[in-house]
Each structure stands twice: as C-alpha cells, then as structure tokens.
Specification:
Largest sheet: 2 strands, antiparallel
Strand order of the largest sheet: 1-2
Shape: globular
Radius of gyration: 18 Å
Helix content: over 70%
Distance between the termini: 21 Å
Length: 230
C-alpha cells in the first residue's frame, strides 16, 4: 500500500476498534447477565464503569438498549454498524468475504432481538466475529493495513479492560499485546504512538496497586496514545 492516506488510516484503525468493541461489549453483557441470574447482581456497576447514568429502570430495558439500540453509542448494535460502515469503504483492502461476516453479524444480532430466548439466539454471534478476524488474518495481505486494524483491536480491548477493571494479570496481558502491536505500527500512516504517553501508561500498570488506584489516569493516557501526528 505504501503511504496510507489519513482517511484510510482512520478507517482501518476504527474498523479494528469498533469490531472489537462490539465483540467485547457482547461478552461483558453476557457475563453480566449470568451474574444477575446466579447472584442477583445489578447492572448499575456496569454503567458506573463507563460514567453513564441509569435511565433504564429495569434490567430488561438495559440489556435491550445495550444490545440493540443503534442510537445508544455504547451498544453492540451501534459499534457493529460503525464497523460495517468502515468495512464498506475498505472492501478492497479487507475482502468482500470479511465484509460479509460483518453483515452476518448484523443479521444475527437483529434476528436475536425477535427471539424468545435472546441468550441462545446470540450464541452464533461470537463465532461470526471469530470468523471475521480469521478472514482478516488470511485475506489482508498489506502489512500496514493489517497492523492498523489490529492496533485498533488491541487498543479497544485494553480500553474496555481498564474501564471494567478486569483482574490485574489479565490487564497486563492485554497491555503486553498492545505494546507488541504498537511496535509494528506502520510508518507510512499519519497515526503514531506517543512514547511519552506510553511511558506513563506503563507506570500506571507496573503494579497492581497502581492499576487499582490510577485507572482514570491510565484511561486518559490510553485514549491519546495513538493519535494523528503532524
């Protein structure tokens, strides 16, 4: 590809982020649903983790919004739609087959919204995401494009790990994966990793105490660690 344009750099990066956001949000909601059934847990802690207010009133309204409402920027449906929008523009880079998996994911999500057993009807969706990522790995031959997509994927996984405060060992594992991705960020794109922010983020994650007490600062550094550079 040589030098990637700013527009395509952004779309490749956000294709990775939005697809991963839809996948990880789906997993987090399924885990929360199981906890609510088994332990009577509520959903307000989830909202708090993202700085959101409770305007839902019931768990069923909460889950339906976070799964299906495209006007809810934190929903699976919203992220999946944004991923698809980027995928259409990038069809030649990612292949029509990869794009078809995003369409399949949208169809599966929509179909599940009419099911009497939402939990069961959503089971095929995770496999569709895995198929999409497998197709990206197999069909994207341009290394710069591939790296930008997976930088976005790792960035989003790390962001959600911080917001949901996953166990420290899991957060460190995600961070190490992100660092590997950032080392291979393509030189021919306006997107660059900010080394100063990476150093600060490394400090916030160098111990479990730092991780637990500096989550907000870590999120702030991560949000701006991979920006367009002049």
């Amino acid at each position: 590809m040589g030098t990637i344009s700013l527009e395509h750099s952004s779309r490749l990066y956000w294709l990775g982020r939005y697809t991963e956001r839809a996948f990880t949000t789906l997993g987090a909601l399924q885990e929360l649903y199981d906890k609510m059934i088994d332990h009577g847990a509520g959903y307000t802690d989830y909202l708090t983790a993202f700085g959101l207010t409770d305007k839902y009133g019931s768990s069923s309204d909460f889950f339906r919004s976070f799964l299906y409402e495209e006007t809810n920027r934190d929903s699976v449906a919203y992220s999946l739609e944004r991923a698809y929008d980027n995928g259409i523009v990038l069809r030649e880079e990612i292949s029509s087959e990869a794009l078809s998996f995003l369409q399949m994911a949208k169809d599966t999500l929509n179909k599940s919204s009419h099911s009497n057993n939402i939990r069961l009807s959503l089971l095929p969706l995770r496999d569709t995401f895995y198929s999409f990522w497998g197709c990206i790995m197999d069909q994207v031959y341009d290394e710069e494009a591939w790296n930008l997509i997976f930088c976005g994927k790792s960035m989003e996984r790390m962001m959600l790990s911080l917001r949901l405060q996953v166990p420290y060992a899991d957060a460190v594992q995600e961070f190490q994966k992100l660092c590997r991705r950032l080392r291979f960020a393509p030189e021919g794109t306006p997107y660059r990793c900010d080394p100063e922010r990476l150093d600060k983020l490394t400090y916030f994650l160098n111990s479990e105490d730092n991780y637990m007490s500096h989550t907000d600062q870590a999120i702030g550094e991560l949000e701006r660690i991979f920006e367009v550079q002049p």
